[in-house]
Amino acid sequence: MEFSTSTIPLLLSPLLVIFLIRAILKVLLRPGCGRRGSLPLPPGTMGWPYVGETFQLYSQNPNVFFLSKQARYGPIFKTHILGCPCVMISSPEAAKFVLVTKSHLFKPTFPASKERMLGKQAIFFHQGEYHTKLRKLVLRAFLPDAIRSKVSDIEPIAANCLQCLEGRVVNTFQEMKTYAFNVALLSIFGKDEVKYREDLKRCYYVLEKGYNSMPVNLPGTLFHKSMKARKELANILEKIILTRRQMKLDHNDLLGSFMSGSEGLTDDQIADNVIGVIFAARDTTASVMTWIIKYLAENPTVLRAVTEEQEAVKRRKYVEEDGGKWKLTWEDTKNMPLTSRVIQETLRVASILSFTFREAVEDVEYEGFLIPKGWKVLPLFRNIHHSPDNFPDPEKFDPSRFEVAPKPNTYLPFGNGVHSCPGNELAKLEILVLLHHLTTKYRWSLMGSQDGIQYAPFALPQNGLPMELSLKT
Ligand code: HEM
User: Fold this and answer.
1) Residue 322: what pLDDT?
2) Number of domains the chain is built from
3) Among 165, 270, 409, 455, who pairs with 92 as Cys (CB 3.0-4.6 Å)?
4) Mean pLDDT across the chain
5) Are strands 442-446 and 466-471 parallel, antiparallel or unpaired?
6) Global pTM value
7) What whole-number distance in Å separates Cα of residue 384 and Cα of residue 363?
């Protein structure tokens, strides 16, 4: 049968009517439609088609973008970044709503390339049952009771790291990355797999270069090289897992937890999550340590007080252990209140994770505004940490402000809710141990200009903070 041009409109009109009815029904039957359908979107601008306001965000310090938007539109505003419509939120209440009370309505979301490189089964990308199971296994390895025995293994790593820097001008961030990497490997594999350390390091260093690359898997591309390194890393892990299965020994580390009993994971799930934890543990902790070294150098009164606190720990150990070769213990690290406040204040001022990403899984109403299904939602940690309502004189580095506990939901360096950081105790522990050795044995001076900040992607002092470290005489 053939259609003449005059029959097409006749045929199209019933099709068009059906299409329109279906479209209207789809909108009307959408969960929460009706009242929610009539809600306004949050205030703000969406910029140019597709590119949105990406250039405005990335052509300057991103915090300038966030702060100016917040000043103009208030604590909840819409924008359009990297092809995605977004709602940004900067009040403690809204952050609690997204991350805690209604966390089931907001799923974690990452760029596809990152998901492929870390591995689809890594903890960050999941919600629900699988996420709960993973989180239990991860927490089992990182809760205080599990890491308290690691102090004696972390201490030599810290001491060696600093010893290697003596008398040299170094890129602080790079050196802290090595330290954080070695502690991460210790917490994942214990001391047994030291022999694989250099191979793991070599593969991981190639892998991480591709984290922010275009996901084009063709020979010669960064992405391709990274995926190859990822495969090699998974092979090394397979070897370690096989050896452990043959030895049938229990291990008090993350890999042991992943492999344990009936809750154990498949080899692929283990590989994705081991790579994921290295990713989560290393650059974050290294950035924070770099900022602490900078703030201490710039605040001599605070440095003096921290040094006195650490010298007192050292003297106490010296007497207790009869002048012998002393070792730090978990209890010692719990007895460093001023140093701990310096860490807290650094986490606030530097806010190395300025924000996180979620995606609305359905239309959500918040404070009379509609957050449409599929839109990205960004709780802006840095804005919350730098609001004078939450922290008076917020730009000032003042550890004493933590002598009083911050107001609820105003202090989120490790996030909040079901996806909050399970490694926070380990991060604080390794920083305390390093600071003990740094302040009791060394002095350091910063080199070059100290004003710039780079985003890689975490906020970091310009050029990784070059410094010269020397032994105290
Ligand atoms: C000072 C250093 C660190 C900071 C500032 C930090 C910060 C964070 C934040 C803000 C989140 C939540 C992200 C979100 O809600 O989207 C997070 C999640 C996570 N962190 Fe950390 N982190 C640090 C160190 C570590 C360490 C040392 C480990 C492991 C040993 C670790 C493992 C993880 C994991 C596995 C998650 C994902 C949890 C989940 O999705 O359930 N982090 N981290």
Assistant:
1) 61
2) 2
3) 409
4) 89
5) antiparallel
6) 0.90
7) 25
